[in-house]
Amino acid sequence: MTTRSRLARLLLLGLAAPPSARAADPPAPAPAPAPTPTALERAWPDHPEWLAMLVDILRGSQLGPGEGWFKKGVAHTRFTWDATRSAFDKDGDGSISRAEFAGPDADFARLDRDRDGRLAGPDFDFPAHALAPSPGMGLFHAADRDGDGKVSLEEFEGLFRALDRDGAGFLSQDDLRQAFAHRPPSKPAPGKPAADGPSRWTLVKGLFRQEIGSLQHGPRPDEPAPDFALRTADGKDEVTLAGLVGPRPVVLVFGNFTCGPFRGQAGNLEKLHRRYKDRATFVMVYVREAHPTDGWQMDGNDRAGVSLRQPQTYAERVGVAQTCGRALNLGFPMLVDTLDDAVGARYSGMPGRLYLIDPRGKVAYQGGRGPFGFKPAELEQSLLLLLRQVEPQEASK
């Protein structure tokens, strides 16, 4: 056993065991002091993502953005701004005009996120994390009453009626300002979890059960996308990645039903599929539950009627996947990972993640770890730029 492995084991045994378990242990000779999280990080400078997560859990983190492996498990793409500018900025003015891009108008409009008529660095800057609060996010969650990630006309009208408390038939500026004012969450005392947050032990178990994420970091851009063979949720077909890879890019979507932020992205995923279904192949891989009732349970799941234990058999997982498919209705095929999470672990797909695979079977985009790094708009940008490389080649054949 290496020194690093010993340090990690001591840290886990000394700090991660639940208090009740430690109290019940019989007296024993005092062991050498367990290393602190800081000492372990210093002793292992190039530590893997899972160790960063363990260290922050043991420090009392509730795993917010920028904590644990979210510091390291960020998005990676072949199509950075520097790479895109080098490919398209023919006059060297630091931006890409419509004429320089030379692709379809609709594609350019989607890439021009600030709508200033040119592509530049700011168009490639995305929010720090997918759950960043905003008035729009507040309105969405208030309106999406059934939690399927899509606001229907009926739900929007229901929100209007709920906000029009005095029955005036209209909403005033103050009505909306008060309804969607940003209220920062209260912070617990240093080293202590929030009153309604998970315990340290719950998070440690969730980490090593791979419910809150895979212990692997997944394939990076320009690395081969690992092949797999999984059955569809209806059990009718077996699909391999090798069979999907071809002239069109492949979009891989990893997710599960008990991950509320994943459900919240369902509308974005469906619109992405509708927009590019004739130009790319979309498939979802259903993975281990993130927030089962026997793990890190979430109140939001109870309110949405999504309360279930971690499936113990493949048949149970298939049943939950089918329920998820009916509820979210994404419009593209769903595959179900094996109970040992072979594909989800290899791709670091738990609790949710996005990948773009090029026609050579190599990764072109690896999204950040979900939920904070799950950004369909960010994937769309890489997809559009990959299509600029692929489609002209197809046209010339």
The number of helical runs is: 18
The Cα radius of gyration reads 23 Å
DSSP strand content: 5-15%
| Oligomeric state of the chains in view | single chain
Q: State the helical fraction.
A: 40-55%
How would you describe this structure to a colleague?
Helix content is 40%, strand content 8%. It is α+β, with helices and mostly antiparallel strands and 397 residues long. Among the domains are: 3-69, no CATH class; 135-179, no CATH class. Strands 1-8-7-4-5-6-2-3 form an eight-stranded mixed β-sheet. It is globular.
Which helices and strands occur, and which strands form pairs?
Layout lengths: L2 H14 L2 H6 L12 H7 L5 H10 L17 E2 L3 H8 L9 H4 L3 H7 L23 H9 L9 H11 L9 H7 L20 H9 L20 E4 L5 E3 H4 L5 E6 L4 H5 L1 H11 L4 E6 L12 H6 L9 H15 L5 E3 L5 H5 L6 E5 L5 E4 L9 H21 L1
Parallel strand pairs: 4-5, 5-6
Antiparallel strand pairs: 1-8, 2-3, 2-6, 4-7, 7-8
Helix pairs in contact: 3-4, 4-11
Can you describe this structure in just a few lines?
This protein is of the alpha+beta class and 397 residues long. The protein has helices at residues 3-16, 19-24, 37-43, 49-58, 81-88, 98-101, 105-111, 135-143, 153-163, 173-179, 200-208, 241-244, 260-264, 266-276, 299-304, 314-328, 342-346, 376-396; strands at 76-77, 229-232, 238-240, 250-255, 281-286, 334-336, 353-357, 363-366. It has an eight-stranded mixed beta sheet with strand order 1-8-7-4-5-6-2-3.
List keywords for this structure.
alpha+beta, 40% helix, eight-stranded mixed sheet
